[in-house]
Amino acid sequence: DEVFLTGRNHDQNRFAESYSGCKVLPSDVANIESVRDAFAEAKPSVVIHAAASKYVDTAESNPMECVDVN
Fold this sequence. Notes:
Elements: E1 4-7, H1 10-20, E2 23-26, H2 32-42, H3 56-61, H4 63-69
């Protein structure tokens, strides 16, 4: 099976792809259409969700952003 990485930060996606050798698909876990597009392309048999907001200041000023991602 092929491993795909997804994320909404394009700079991090490029880094992850070059570092890991895995194919990267743009995706935003807070946007269902974005997730559907990634699933339609990858057709995964296993999904590991590891998305998380790591910015404390964003969490404090926009808590719903963190709820959507986490």
